[in-house]
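Colleagues,

Please find the record for the two-part complex below.
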Amino acid sequence: RKEVEQDPGPFNVPEGATVAFNCTYSNSASQSFFWYRQDCRKEPKLLMSVYSSGNEDGRFTAQLNRASQYISLLIRDSKLSDSATYLCVVNLGTGGFKTIFGAGTRLFVKA
Amino acid sequence: EAQVTQNPRYLITVTGKKLTVTCSQNMNHEYMSWYRQDPGLGLRQIYYSMNVEVTDKGDVPEGYKVSRKEKRNFPLILESPSPNQTSLYFCASSPHGTGGGYTFGSGTRLTVV
């Protein structure tokens, strides 16, 4: 089993749609969680951190479920510019600075 | 401008010919890391460094070496490259090692023939 698993997609959605990505992780000791965005052939960039209480940044909402060991990303009112690959990132925290990236979920937003 | 600079951007080399990919950051970050990205496998950590002279193996360290003699530089060395090291490589730095706040370099696309 992979340490961090994501549905590879692709997700094809029309502009204005709401789309949700899930990510599961295997190590219950994981401490920090993030979503990164990667455009084609470019470097990943931090989209948002994921907090236990859930957090929102504009059209983006991230949630963490420690009991079930998954995190989610919800994108509302999708824009063409949201087309990218979304990477789930998990860090083991203190005692191990291993940061594990999921393989990513590809999103295409169409006009 | 705060950035991580990797060189070269593209490299084609032959099996067994030693090469170095340089990485430099100007943000005074303590934590630096190297990743390789392959289709369907995502980003896999090769080595990381928590500070000068402190390095540790990631998930796929075989065939690679690193050094951290200065805070700003973290070169990746392939002593004897093989075709299975053909990949897209990213260097990243962070003020801490928790996974957030990573700044990535633009990537190095390496082909070993």
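The interface with chain B takes residues 4, 8, 31-34, 36, 41-46, 49, 87, 89-91, 93, 97-104 of chain A (CB under 8 Å).

Comments are welcome before we finalize the supplementary table.
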